[in-house]
Amino acid sequence: MKLAVISDLHGNYYALSEVMEFLRRQQIDGIIGLGDFVTDGPFPQRMMGVLREMQEEFPCYLVRGNREEYLLENLWQPQNWKAGSSTSGLLDYTFRNLTEQDLKFFEQLPTDGVLIGKLDEAGKLVPVFVPQEEVTPDTCRESLFPALRLCHGAPGEIRGNFGLHPELLLSHLENLDASILLGGHSHKQEQKEYAGKTYLNPGSLGLALDDVGGHAHFAILTLENSTWQIECFQIPYDLEGYLAEFDRAELETHGSVLARSLKRTLTCGINYFYLTVKRVRELADALALTDLDEELWKLGVTAKTQHNEVAPAQHELATIYTKANLAVDHNQIVMETMKKVASRHGMACLLHEKPFQGVNGSGKHNNWSLASDTGINMLDPGVTPHENIQFLLVLACIMKAVDRHADLLRQSAAVPGNDYRLGAQEAPPAIISIFVGEQLEDVIDQLISTGSATHSKIGGTLKTGVTTLPDFDKDATDRNRTSPFAFTGNKFEFRMVGSSDSVSSANVVLNTIVAEAFKEAADELEKAEDFDLAVHDMIKKLLAEHRRIIFNGNGYSEAWVEEAECRGLPNLKCMVDSIPALVTEKAFKLFGDFGVYTKEELVARAEIEYESYAKSVNIEAKSMINIAGKQLIPAVVRYTTVLAQSLSAVKTACPEADNSVQTELLIEVSDLLSDMKVARAKLEDLVEEYQHIESMEKRAHFCYDEIIPAMQALRSPADQLEMIVDKEYWPIPSYGDMIFEV
Q1: Residues 612 and 576 grouped into a single domain
Q2: Residue 463 shares a structural domain with residue 571
Q3: Are residues 544 and 678 part of one domain?
């Protein structure tokens, strides 16, 4: 018995006609077809004619491919493919050139099944196809020749790709009842052996990826002594004649990109469609940023800079500075526009502060400066900052403001996601401090110790150590990425604001606390008999009193945490701890004196902040419960079942074999599964308890003290299982998928 195996014809009637002539000479007894018969080529009816001729001449055992699935989906639920579209145009062309009879033919094809041997009425051994839904545990065992499993991509998954997921293939072979697994889809001819079973991909008859082009790939199975012998073929066909058909059918008018890609693939055997899609995706990413610029400009937001940042798929966008109230509006518009543009390009804009543990999070650099009504930058130190009295007074007032109201400044950057970001991977710590750089710190220390500053440090020279490169001037102001409030030459950069947060709160607090410091300074100086002496004394006094707020070192170090505590600086690590800063007598007076907020408004804001935190955590906890219960735990149960079956099979087949790996793995996975179930149950109980707490403040504290630790306890076994469980069974994108495949 001889059976030909063909797959992935893709409408290439030239190649099919040539293969049929070859098969006639081989005197085959039947043809196995693994799907993707008719789409993407010119003149679909000609392909249907050759297919019908094949079926009339040979017994055929056919399964549906993913391209037929596309056609049927459009038949069942019209997708309104666009004529002439680069992506769907050829599908639309094929669909409109098929008859109702053609579509019904593909509709009756099974998606997969097994081919078994039986005796007909005359006692002759003949192949019989059994659809998968009719297969029983005895079907393959009762076959009179080694059974063949037929599918397009993978068993039970019509679009499964063993080329991309070889681990999936090994799993299927290990659990295969049949002797040989026949599949296509990857367009690459290959044969693999595993666990005493065989996988055969005959390659693509109509669109082979062989780095050659112009050849039809297929295979012939020959039954000899109750064993299938496999022979693979690659035969040439009239490629030039077929390419001329593309032009006659004017396929490029129906699907320009795909048609051109197919012609190049047919010519050289290289997947130009994949390369085209890859390039289109790269261009789309770039286009998305360009599109974002244009959308923002239409709205009057002058986007200036975009560039990649450290984390996967992380980008930074900067707008040109403007007045505070307008800049706040711009920032809000930017966030909304980024989401809309991303969606337009088939992407998502994620504004969460810490999407990945152990990887840089996302925040905002709130560049804050002061200018007079005549346009003079009050934060420009000049070349000799030690002689710039105006700058030194402004700096001293800012130090006072930040030191006095560090708790409010910390609260202004409080959103739930920021708790995970602050103090980690380049984000500033939760401790408020000011970085002024080596030059200004030296000037401040001179003023404090002697009452006057006589010089300013210069930058010096940065030695490259390379003879072919010149040395560079070294900036004495430098920069510290670990500081939450850093002086950067002519402005301050408040780096604590989270990526999802509005910058309005931060700027309201900054402007108000500095206004208070300026008012108090002005009130005192206006009464002074000797203005110059009073300014001198005030600068020295303020710098000495608030020197503790300056820190130029590593904000991540444990030593700084201890030192900050000794200095009396607050360390408000979480949002819940920062909210009380809104309802102190100090805050009531500050905001009340300047008409920013009333006491009642501040109390209301605190209540809203507690509610925001509590509801955010509650939603995340419920999501974790659902994900763990409906996705992760069932997936791991399935995996343990496979492990157990594998262990049992090994023990049965060869009791002497070492099965310690399977045993230890099964025990480890089962233990972690149990841990997850227990952790999930505890989290469920806490979420239920949360519902009975009336006070929003108490709810927020309960979330921080009880629910978040329980969420972390549930995540721990899940993270470990993600590293163990076969990717085939893991139901959601893994860390590896999200970080390394974006």
Answers
A1: no
A2: yes
A3: no
Tokens representing 654 are: 């060869």
3-state secondary structure at position 485: strand
- Coil, helix or strand at residue 51: helix
pTM: 0.62
In this structure, the chain runs to a length of: 742
Q: Interhelix angle for 239-248 vs 256-268, to 10°?
A: 170
Q: How far apart are CA 549 and CA 438, in angstroms?
A: 15
Q: Choose one of 210, 242, 270: the last residue of a domain.
A: 270
Instruction: Identify whether residues 197 and 48 lie together within a single domain.
Output: yes
Q: Residue 20: its pLDDT value, please?
A: 96
Residue 11's domain spans which residues? 2-270
Domain shared by 391 and 466, yes or no: yes
How far the first Cα of the chain sits from its last, in Å, is 49
CATH number at residue 249: 3.60.21.10
Contacts with 520 (C-beta within 8 Å, 6 or more apart), sequence order: none
Number of H helices, E strands in the chain: 25, 19
76 contacts: CB under 8 Å, gap ≥ 6: none
- The dihedral of CA 205, 207, 211, 212: what is its sign? positive
Closest CA to 148 of 235, 215, 219, 204: 219
Q: How far apart are CA 319 and CA 292, in angstroms?
A: 12
The predicted structure's pLDDT at residue 224? 93
Nearest to 195 by CA among 171, 169, 174, 172: 174
DSSP string, 414-478: --TTHHHHTTSTTSPPSB--EE-HHHHHHHHHHHHHHS---------EE----TTS--EEPPSS-
Q: What angle is formed at CA 735 by the lines to CA 729 and CA 741, rounded to 5 degrees? A: 95
- Please give the average pLDDT of every successive group of 10 residues along the chain, which has 742 residues: 96 96 95 95 94 95 93 76 74 91 93 94 94 92 95 90 79 89 94 91 95 94 95 96 93 84 90 64 61 87 77 84 92 93 82 84 91 88 80 94 96 92 77 89 85 66 47 50 86 93 95 97 94 91 94 86 93 94 97 97 97 96 95 92 88 88 92 96 97 95 96 95 88 77 54
How many folded domains does the chain comprise?
3
Is residue 579 located within the same domain as residue 656? no
Q: Which two tokens stand for residue 706?
A: 């009880």
Gap between the Cα atoms of 620 and 614, Å rounded: 10
Domain-ending residue, one of 531, 564, 595: 595
Q: Is 333 domain-assigned?
A: no
